[in-house]
Amino acid sequence: MFATHPLIIIEGLINGHNDMIAVSLGLIGIYLFEKKYNVWSRILFLFSAGIKYVTLPIVLIGIFPVILSRAKNLIKRYEIKLLFCFQIALILYLCWTMEIQSWYFLPLFVYLPFFPNFIEKLNILFFGLLLSYYPFIRFGDWATKTVAFKHEIVFAALFLNIAFFLFKYILTYVWRKK
Predict the structure, then answer these.
(1) 69 and 12 share a domain?
(2) Does the pTM exceed 0.90?
């Protein structure tokens, strides 16, 4: 899913953002962390966060078990979910204070080993992020009208994705009741 995802290919490889390097180092760090190469994984986490600060929650994957080693069972269940929520909060903060850019969402792919189904269900939003280049291609500049059109595309994709989640949740809930 990582190597063939359109957002990874277009934003990471074609547009050449350094987020792709940070995400790759984060994924390799997670792999090494799972294989018990703790020192190397933490070094890769630090390099990842050093390249792109938005991947900073990844560093905490290696630090939480050290700080809170007594509550390992609690950490294992909630650590990754908490870090993933923090990652989403960072992305929303960037989108709110600066501009909505597609490459801001690349660090979500670091959590692919933990939440593959959830990230796959975000494909409507990812498609909207890629489609947000259409106003620039159509009008040729980033004037106020173009940026507003870009935001409308992204918010429509976000709304459709939320509607998809709610529909799927309600459908699953009704199915379980029967």
Answers:
(1) yes
(2) no
